[in-house]
Specification:
Pfam families: EFP (PF01132), EFP_N (PF08207), Elong-fact-P_C (PF09285)
Strand order of the largest sheet: 1-6-2-3-4-5
GO molecular function: translation elongation factor activity
Subcellular location: Cytoplasm
Number of helices: 0
Low-confidence stretches: none
Family: Belongs to the elongation factor P family.
Structural class: mainly beta
Mean pLDDT: 88
Helix content: under 10%
Largest sheet: 6 strands, antiparallel
Protein name: Elongation factor P
Oligomer: single chain
Order of helices and strands: EEEEEEEEEEEEEEEE
Number of strands: 16
Length: 185
């Protein structure tokens, strides 16, 4: 059990039978009435974000999340097959569980699987990945007054806004949290 007074960003807790990670929290002590903690929580099972208010000092269950390194092997229809790097066990996750992550997954990529008491909740990607540009328009000379950008499609199908000097075949470093261009690799 953990007190809501000890909330930290990234902490995983169990509330009403669901597993949540704390995105934001704020301790509020009004002039009149009891103190409370206002929080924004993300459900790890379905990805929904909820706002909850707890009384100060209230205790809730702490969820011990396990992270293991796994390799992404291949896609088979709607299923995506992963292999545990220690035990070599293979398992699959549905496309619905990996909607955002599929924009960055390549075969043989190492990611962390997130599980709670044997239930697989999803995967954690590295903060940035290298992806190759497969389609983009050529940059037009003289069109660079103030940091102009153009659209580029990378090998996973993600569309990213990039500077005009990026060409097809370039390998880019892409931020997996926001899906934005960082630099050339």
């Amino acid at each position: 059990m953990i007190s809501v007074n000890d909330f930290k960003t990234g902490l995983t807790v169990e509330v009403d039978g669901d597993i949540f990670t704390v995105l934001e929290f704020q301790h509020v002590k009004p002039g009149k009435g009891a103190a409370f903690v206002r929080s924004k929580l993300k459900n790890l099972r379905n990805g929904n974000t909820v706002e909850r208010t707890f009384r100060a000092g209230e205790t809730i269950g702490r969820a011990m999340i396990e992270n293991r390194a796994v390799s992404y092997l291949y896609a088979s229809g709607q299923d995506h097959v992963f292999m545990d790097n220690e035990t070599y066990d293979q398992f699959s996750l549905d496309s619905k569980q990996l909607e955002w992550e599929l924009n960055f997954l390549k075969e043989n990529m190492i990611v962390n699987i997130v599980s709670y008491q044997g239930e697989i909740l999803g995967i954690n990607l590295p903060n940035s990945v290298e992806l190759k540009v497969v389609e983009t328009e050529p940059g037009i000379k003289g069109n660079t007054a103030t940091g102009a950008t153009k659209n580029a499609k990378v090998e996973t199908g993600l569309n990213v806004q990039v500077p005009l000097f990026i060409n097809e075949g370039d390998v880019l470093l892409i931020d997996t949290r926001e899906g934005k261009y960082i630099s050339r690799a």
